[in-house]
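anyone seen this seq b4? input:
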Amino acid sequence: MLPLIDDEGPTLECPEDITEYADGTSSVPVEWTVPKPKDNSGLDVSMNSTHESNDYFFIGETVVTYFAWDIFENVATCSFTIIIISKYESMH
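predicted toks r here
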């Protein structure tokens, strides 16, 4: 029996960029659907991220990146940007 060799990374699709408005605060929680990695091997895929859904984000832009890897150490990444705008600044 030949050993299973997989050199194809998992698939991972991030949400679109998200814009939220801060109303009198410097940060707001932002929620999104967490990506679900899939792998051609059918085996489990591990995943980690720089931020979690419902984390608080400060006014400005923050890039959120997800990393997924299979048991063969093939890696996939995807990213999106959280944009927090002060409601008071957007009124000018």
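Residues 18-36+53-62+80-92 form one domain. The first strand starts at residue 18 and ends at 22. kinda curious what u guys think
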